[in-house]
Every structure is written in C-alpha cells, then in structure tokens.
Amino acid sequence: MVRRDALLEKLLNVLPGFRGYREKERLREDDRLVREYIVGVLSEAIRDLGEAIANIAEYDFGSAELFDSILRDLRAVADRIRWAEHGYAPHFNIVKIQEEDLARMREVDLSIVENAEKIREFAASVKRDSMLRNPVRERVQELVKLIDDVRAKLVDRENIVRGWMQ
Questions:
Q1: Is the overall model pTM greater than 0.85, yes or no?
Q2: Alpha carbon 30 to chain centroid distance?
Q3: Which of 3, 87, 114, 163 is 20 to 30 A away from residue 96, measured at CA?
Q4: So what's the pLDDT on residue 145?
Q5: How far is CA 67 from CA 51, 60, 113, 147, 154, in A?
C-alpha cells in the first residue's frame, strides 16, 4: 500500500499544475495535525488541572474556585484551537489563503505549541503540589498569563487566515 502511494505521488508530481496543489494540501494537512497536537496537550493539562482542583478543594476551597474558573477558560481556548479556521478557502471565497500565509501560521502555531506545553507542565506541577497539600494560590496569575499568551497568538493566527495581518 505504501509503495503504491509513493508511485502515485511521483506520478501526480509529474502532472503539470498538480504539484503546487499538492503542496498546499500538504500544508493544510500539517496545519490540522498541529492543531490536533495542541488540543491533545491542552487536554492533558485540563485533566491534570481538574484532578488538582479536586485535591485543592479538600484544603483550600477559595483557591479551588479560582483554578476552576481558569479551567473553564482553558477549555474554551482548547475548543477555539480545535475549531480554528484551518487555512482552507473555497474556490470562490473573497479571501484566499496563500502559501506565505500558511508559513506564517506555522510560526504562530509553533509558539502556541510551546505555550501549550508550558501549560501542561504547569498543570502537572500544580497537581503534584495539590497532592502534597502545598499552597498553590500564588501560582494562579502564572497560569492566567500562559493562557492569555495562547489567546493572543490565536488572535494573530485568525488575523492571518482572514487576511488582516500583512
């Protein structure tokens, strides 16, 4: 099956005009895979943070409420990434997404991946601290900042897709 796909790819690359089309489709598929990876990382963070909140509620209910509101915010950001515009524009759409735009989206996506991984590490450390019943309230602002950074990068990404960012 792999060999037949490779032969078919070689054949399609030879066809005039088809190579550029294939490259765009490959970039779009990469975009989808990156977004799925980010959502997976954030899902792990959401799970760890949820478990941490359950632990924190046993000894500091006020902090648990703070983290719970942040958890809702993190879920909203993960959903926003999951359903983000993905670099596809129908043939007659006014705004066309060019290959340069997709390359810029990759740069933004890389920074989102880095921040998502920081959020996952942060959530895991809060979970560990909550299991030891360590105070975690002072760490709330750090998590808020990480989520705000992701949100800002999402706005950049949306502006690229809509053609508002040059």
A1: no
A2: 13
A3: 114
A4: 97
A5: 11, 11, 22, 12, 22
